């Protein structure tokens, strides 16, 4: 297949070069495209119309160019969208979760883009709509709901929304009897809040001008916002902060953390003006989480060298570290991911041998049992419960071929009740598909898991195209879960693959440590090794592989493009973190100080500077024959700012050899998560899939079987 033949010849936007240099550690870095960063970027996040007209003109020219280059896929995009939409139950509803006299859930109406939140009587009955996202979103080009929290007396609803895509959320309070919002309104919040014990006010985190949650405040209903009580202020810009509550409504938990260190402060929910009590002071590398256990806190921690975490207990009246006592010992290779406490049981989600599992422990006896599953690769999630004094907990299960299932599980009788199976209205036959779990040899001999799904009629002789997805950062594990969207590729003969590269926790905490800081390049070489193994074992060929990743996974895309452009037939980089060095050198950007533990601090450390400079995609663009590349971004993204991909695209065009195009699609009305509606998001996916089909010569392919 000739890569040159699939795109029309058209002039791409050429960005002006205006060199700006800065020197660190005696090393000078010159950036020809730094002007794309708007000086008033904070203002643009709040009001996109304030973007500099010259920058806007350039971004609009990029959109016009990619639109022209992808014009011949317009009908294909419509077909893909229709297929994906057809797999979604439009009037879908969650299984309501019980809490006192009611059960709470969410649903969508036919044609609805946004969720609705409802409640019914505890044991079933008429639904009462508490909040309709479509009504709230009416007339807004972007709208996304944040946290939703009903008060313990079931009289009010605390809810949040973002209507810019910049993740500055507004908090509102709804009276559930009248259905009307109170006058209380809080701007610039982190997107959620927690009710006080008597439900006459709530706690929330406020974001500063640089989008950092720096203050925890208490708002009493009916008071003016400027009178909100400052509960705690975090002085270190390198730490995130959020607030949560326990299910018995006794405690407010103030969680403070970066990517390797955590700290908790406690406050009784009936005493909002008190001084929060420190649990264990921050100690670099010490991580812990608190979970309510009635008279104790359960503490999930890596203390004392427990790399894959252990579970401790501490009395609620004095949970200082000196009082921690071991409950579940550390077991190397078994990563404990989360715990949920109940009156008589403790449930933990853990990962061993690359697969998740749920373990239930009886608190009185210490006896444990595991909930078993049969498939080769699958995904699990704990949904927990609103209630603490209950024998029933909820979990979800899916695999790459099995639609999501919701179960209630009786922890005493071990009875598993299937409540719901994800409906695929257009039909889904799991027997038409094959799912596999491969172990790919990496450069250093490590075995990298790769999850696959493909149609049973797909030939495995090297002729099949492949979409290879990767992430590999922050310890985030990409689950082998059911994905109705990818079936549009799989049904056209694609092998859909997920490379579980280092930087995630797929094989334990050490898998994460082996893909960060000085060992970051393992993430990139693992992904390239996965691509080569898929070719070597006959699943695909290099010019038929389309690599895809977003955010930190977009950085992975930029890195593998520089390191092995010949190994891929196309690359899709969504909201790509590609200007790593410049971003980590700018302490004013929203996420830079909290990110230093993950990537290194090039301001203070020459070694970190040289390390990041060695792989930062933007800084390593060279005169190479890159495959076709599609970059996707959002103008108001506070996580990966729009100018990172804009600059990267400009430099790629300037330096690359050959005729393969570099396309840049930027949503001028959204942020990091893309379009906010469930169907408008499908349009974006249809676009990227059309690109994958185009570069692999499969635009005319018809579904198999």
UniProtKB/TrEMBL annotation:
Task: Keywords in alphabetical order, please.
Answer: Hydrolase, Protease, Serine protease
Q: Any idea where the Peptidase S9 prolyl oligopeptidase catalytic domain is?
A: 482-697
Q: Which residues form the Peptidase S9A N-terminal domain?
A: 15-421
- Residue ranges for the region (Disordered) are 1-27
| Segments crossing the lipid bilayer | none
The entry sums up its family as follows: Belongs to the peptidase S9A family.
PANTHER family given in the database record = PROLYL ENDOPEPTIDASE-LIKE, PROTEASE FAMILY S9A OLIGOPEPTIDASE
What is this protein called in UniProt? S9 family peptidase
Q: What is the lineage of its organism?
A: Bacteria, Pseudomonadati, Pseudomonadota, Alphaproteobacteria, Hyphomicrobiales
């Amino acid at each position: 297949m000739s890569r040159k033949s699939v795109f029309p010849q058209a002039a791409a936007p050429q960005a002006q070069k205006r060199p700006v240099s800065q020197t660190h550690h005696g090393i000078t870095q010159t950036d020809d495209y730094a002007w794309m960063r708007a000086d008033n970027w904070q203002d643009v996040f709040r009001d996109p119309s304030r973007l500099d007209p010259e920058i806007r003109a350039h971004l609009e020219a990029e959109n016009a160019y990619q639109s022209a280059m992808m014009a011949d896929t317009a009908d294909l995009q419509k077909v893909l969208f229709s297929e994906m939409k057809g797999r979604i139950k439009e009037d879908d509803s969650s299984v309501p979760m019980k809490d006192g006299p009611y059960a709470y859930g969410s649903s969508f109406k036919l044609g609805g883009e946004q969720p609705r939140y409802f409640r019914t009587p505890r044991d079933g009955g008429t639904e009462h709509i508490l909040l309709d996202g479509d009504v709230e979103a009416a007339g807004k080009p972007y709208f996304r709901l944040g946290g939703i929290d009903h008060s313990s007396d079931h009289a009010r609803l605390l809810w949040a929304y973002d209507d810019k895509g910049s993740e500055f959320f507004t908090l509102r309070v709804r009276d559930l009897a009248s259905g009307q919002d109170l006058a209380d309104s809080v701007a610039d919040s982190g997107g959620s809040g927690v009710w006080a014990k008597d439900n006459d006010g709530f706690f929330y985190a406020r974001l500063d001008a640089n989008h950092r949650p720096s203050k925890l405040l208490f708002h009493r209903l009916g008071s003016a916002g400027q009178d909100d009580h400052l509960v705690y202020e975090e002085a270190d810009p390198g730490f995130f902060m959020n607030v949560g509550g326990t299910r018995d409504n006794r405690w407010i938990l103030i969680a403070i953390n970066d990517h390797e260190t955590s700290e908790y402060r406690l406050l009784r929910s009936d005493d909002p003006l008190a001084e929060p009590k420190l649990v264990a002071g921050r100690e670099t590398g010490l991580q812990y989480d608190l979970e309510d256990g009635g008279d104790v806190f359960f503490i999930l921690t890596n203390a004392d060298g427990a790399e894959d975490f252990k579970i401790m207990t501490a009395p609620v009246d004095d949970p200082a570290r000196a009082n921690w006592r071991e409950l579940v010992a550390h077991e190397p290779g078994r990563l404990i991911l989360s715990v949920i406490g109940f009156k008589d049981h403790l449930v933990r989600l853990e990962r061993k041998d690359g697969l998740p599992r749920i373990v239930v422990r009886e608190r009185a006896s210490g006896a444990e049992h595991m909930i078993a599953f049969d498939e080769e690769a699958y995904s699990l999630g704990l949904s927990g419960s609103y209630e603490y004094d209950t024998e029933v907990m909820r979990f979800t299960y899916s695999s790459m071929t099995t639609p999501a299932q919701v179960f209630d599980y009786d922890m005493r009788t071990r009875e598993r009740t299937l409540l719901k199976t994800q409906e695929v209205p257009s039909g889904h036959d799991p027997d038409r598909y094959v799912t596999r779990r491969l172990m790919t040899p990496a450069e250093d001999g490590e075995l990298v898991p790769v999850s696959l799904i493909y149609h049973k009629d797909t030939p495995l002789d090297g002729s099949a195209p492949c979409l290879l997805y990767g992430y590999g950062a922050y310890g985030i594990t990409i689950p082998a879960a059911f994905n109705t969207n990818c079936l549009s590729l799989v049904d056209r003969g694609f092998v859909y693959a997920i490379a579980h590269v280092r930087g995630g926790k797929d094989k334990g905490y050490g898998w994460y440590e082996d893909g960060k800081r000085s060992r970051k390049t393992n993430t990139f070489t693992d992904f390239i090794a996965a691509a080569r193994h898929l070719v070597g074992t006959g699943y695909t060929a290099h010019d038929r592989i389309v690599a895809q990743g977003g955010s930190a996974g977009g950085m992975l895309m930029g890195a593998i493009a520089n390191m092995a452009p010949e190994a891929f037939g196309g690359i899709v980089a969504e909201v790509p973190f590609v200007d790593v060095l410049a971003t980590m050198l700018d302490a004013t950007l929203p996420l830079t100080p909290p990110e230093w533990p993950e990537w290194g601090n090039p301001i203070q450390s020459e070694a970190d500077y040289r390390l990041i400079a060695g792989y930062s995609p933007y800084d390593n663009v060279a005169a190479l024959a890159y495959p076709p590349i599609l970059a996707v971004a959002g103008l108001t993204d506070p996580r990966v700012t729009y100018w990172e991909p804009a600059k990267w695209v400009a430099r790629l065009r300037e330096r690359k050899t050959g005729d393969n195009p570099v396309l840049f699609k930027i949503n001028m009305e959204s942020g990091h998560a893309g379009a906010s509606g469930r169907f408008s998001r499908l349009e974006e996916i249809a676009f990227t899939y059309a690109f994958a089909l185009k570069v692999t010569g499969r635009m005319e392919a018809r579904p198999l079987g």
